[in-house]
Amino acid sequence: MARGLQTTRGEIPDPDNRRGVEATAERRLTITNKVGLHARPAALFVQTAARFKDTRVEVVKDGLVRDAKSILGVLTLGVSQGTMITVRAEGPQADAAVAALTDLVSRDFDE
Hints:
Layout: E1 24-30, H1 39-50, E2 56-61, E3 64-67, H2 71-75, E4 84-90, H3 94-106
Antiparallel strand pairs: 1-4, 2-3, 2-4
């Protein structure tokens, strides 16, 4: 066997390491909306994340990770005005999901 090419039975090496690797994206955002991520803004946040069905989307605050597609998950973070969150996504639409949530937050949830 050639040096540096280790394989297990029946497996073909993937020199570009593409197989099984999901696209990921992440962005830190500051919530400037007066009410933070309460009822209506949280619902918009969750609805936006849910559009990306084949992509896992999470929101992180102070080390607490929640599913961005879960209204209870988002609400229990207690995100108020001025809070910094991280939005991260993994899957085929990771970049689009993070971009859509970034746009929503930057527009102050259209309030």
